[in-house]
User: What shape does this take?
Amino acid sequence: MAGGRKFMTKSGIEIAKFLDKRESFASAQEIFLGLRAEGRNFGLATIYRALQSLTSTGEVDVLRRSDGEALYRKCGEDHHHHLICKGCGKTIEIEGVSVEEWAHTIAERHGFREIQHSAEIFGICPDCFTQAEPKRR
Amino acid sequence: MAGGRKFMTKSGIEIAKFLDKRESFASAQEIFLGLRAEGRNFGLATIYRALQSLTSTGEVDVLRRSDGEALYRKCGEDHHHHLICKGCGKTIEIEGVSVEEWAHTIAERHGFREIQHSAEIFGICPDCFTQAEPKRR
DNA sequence: AGCCATAGTGAGAATGATTATCAAAGTCAT
DNA sequence: ATGACTTTGATAATCATTCTCACTATGGCT
Assistant: This one.
């Protein structure tokens, strides 16, 4: 079920590499600017295209910031959830067996099929908590 | 912690009532059109303002559709999660003690503070499953 | 090498939700 | 009714994302 390696264009590979180096979620615009800062000038359209492709194969995870902007991150391919720092954006992949069970149980109780679920935890990481000042924004 | 009743404008009250009658999440645009269909012509700006106010007091829940559009729903004021039908949008409020515990445990293990979490379950409800054809869209 | 077919790129336009403006209309205690 | 203040809503402005389309790179094939 885990999408296997799919064909990826040259720019797609570079964009994936860029995400590999980050430990936090990044918006398409941040990726665009980040690559530009490295001298790699991709068009926004290319970035969005690559991101779509990467998310469709499951190589990249997406989630929505509260303002609706999409954030992307390169992750392990197996199912997992995230613990995200509201200060610096640092993201930790976590497992959630109890969440899986919970979703399954609830869904069954109500007769729902084709279940998916989302579960993320947000908070302030120890670094940001001690430094009164968050690293980002 | 649960935000108490806050002052609400006249239109805000009408918009809240409109949401009261729905059992599924609605976008701002849907609310706009729905009210208009009832002969209540509010400006979009007014709808968005009321929605902001309602969500800030916790009277209305927000979540993001996969395309990033915000969806609103009048809910019980105590903390809960949602089971949402991907077919008709029908939404059921559910509790998730195990999720709360999970979030708390994980956060503590990593030293995170000021924890929040989100957890929703999506699936096809029994009605939509039997009728091959979903009610909405 | 030269040539075609096809996929990939990117500047800029188009879309669409949300937010900001701001003048006009409503509210209310005096 | 008067003035101080709030609410409203038509419209313009933002901003992320998607679409267009001419142009370029690529890969086979001779």
